[in-house]
Amino acid sequence: MNQQTRIENISRIIKRDLDNPHGKIDIPWQDSLVPMPVYLIPLEYLVYNKYNGRILSKTQSLERQNQKIDVESPEGKSQIEDFLYATNPLRNKQTLESLKKVGQEKVGIVTKDGIIIDGNRRAMLLHKAGKTFFKAVVLDATLEENPLAIEELETSFQMGEDKKLDYNPTEKYLKAKQLEKRGVKVATIASWMGEPESVVKKYLKVMKIMDEYLDYLDQNGIYTQLDGREDQFIILADELGVLYGASNGKGFDGYRDTDVDDLKAISFDYIRIRFEGKEFRYIAYGKQESNFFGNKEIWTSFRDFHFEHIKPIVLQEDKIDIDSPDLGSTLDDRDARFLRATEKTISGKSFMRENVEDHLRKLNNTKYVNQPIKLVSNALDSLTAIDPKNQATDTPEVLDQIQKITELTSKMILAKSPKRVLSDIVASLRVIDLEKNEDSIDDLLEQVKEIEKAAYRIEKELKSLR
Q1: Last residue within a domain, chosen from 167, 195, 227
Q2: Residue 229's closest CA among 313, 291, 173?
Q3: Measured between alpha carbons, how far is 400 from 64 in angstroms, rounded to an integer?
Q4: Does residue 38 lie in a domain region?
Q5: How much is the pTM?
Q6: Contact 53, 155 (CB under 8 A)
Q7: Domain count, the chain
Q8: Which of 255-269, 283-297, 321-335, 384-398 has the lowest mean pLDDT?
Q9: Nearest-CA neighbor of 213 among 170, 262, 272?
Q10: Which of 34, 177, 234, 256 is deepest in the core (most CB within 10 A)?
């Protein structure tokens, strides 16, 4: 049924029932509270609003793929109904059962050409329940004739009333962006949404970071890929807002905007693998002493490790096919493969998680700089946990690190107690097992000569001090 036919059919119902409507309700319309009659309109005369705030991210994601949704076609109608039902299957199931028993309780709002402004979900459930009529007031306008007034009405009814029930969190950010793009002022958007201006400004700030994230992954406009990641975007938007353009005591001394760019890129990678909670905040959120970005040495180490290990994974990723028939599933699978690629470690844990854990230990160590016993105890616990029988301890990397530990501890002890150092050396010499030796005999003999020389020098100096 085309637009003109819908207008004619709905107009006939209004004329027929004008003096005997199914009640009246007050509707905020064009700056006034207007009492409007309620009509019973056949569902077949109505079409869903594909830009409904409840499903905006899904329809815009499809259009980004050049897939047009024809709401007048059976296929388009079915697609919108699937989107609407998927917003909250449990609640929709409960409402569906209620509609079957008692029918429609809350009145909807439609345009004169049958586009549903408020009540898309209810109309979908009525159709599923086998009902044939929709109770609604009819605006004396089409979307094309008065777009902003209808946008105000839809936003205030949907985002203002139902937002806490079953709206995908992404929708509120996308709606705020859409309205601002159409020239609606922040104060007006706030009024329509029933929120303070500060909240709407935050929506726009978070949406900007969301768009940058999608651009970073070459997924511009595929808003469904933001689902389940809201908290991390909120955290990142707050932090970047105070880091860019100012050295304010939140980051390490002397950081630049290019460092913040690195922080944003790394954070995007962590958001991609759905790394969340307190661990995500350690990267840069909160007080300077509580995150990696607040300590230049720790940040540099964390950043360099990440970029070194993430680069080969990204370079091997396939190019995104934006025309994929099920792009959402394709991108979800791509993200899952990205995560699996980071898990090719000895522990089987993602190196991204290990990188956070390793640098969190370093960060915590800085808090105990004046408590050496705490640091020494932690180091001893770590060394004690090593299984010397594990073949992994025989790798050059592990042995090099152990040697560095030995050299460091020897220097620390030597500065305070030469006797302890000599005792350790004697103890070590006594337990050397030459039968299991894999080193060159000549090299060992050379080392023995060096020990003899050092021992002779120490003996000579000690005798001179008597």
Answers
A1: 167
A2: 173
A3: 53
A4: yes
A5: 0.75
A6: yes
A7: 3
A8: 384-398
A9: 272
A10: 177
Spatial distance between the Cα atoms of 14 and 37, rounded to a whole number of angstroms: 9
Residues 59 and 110 in one domain: yes
Kindly state whether residue 157 falls inside one of the protein's structural domains: yes
Structure tokens at 444: 């060992």
Give the end of a domain, one of 128, 151, 167.
167
Angle in degrees, CA 257, 317, 304, rounded to 5 = 35
List the structure tokens of 45.
């005369």
69's CB contacts (< 8 A; 6+ apart) are 50, 59, 62, 63, 76, 79, 80
pLDDT the model gives residue 319? 87
Tell me which of 9-23, 188-202, 441-455 is least confident.
441-455
pLDDT for the residue 410: 62
* Residue closest to 67 by CA, chosen among 229, 224, 228, 227: 224
Range of the domain at 444: 432-466
Query: Looking at the domain assignment, is residue 406 inside a domain?
Result: yes
**Average of per-residue pLDDT across 170-178:** 90
Same-domain pairing of 42 and 64: yes
Residue 215 pLDDT class (50, 70, 90 cuts): very high
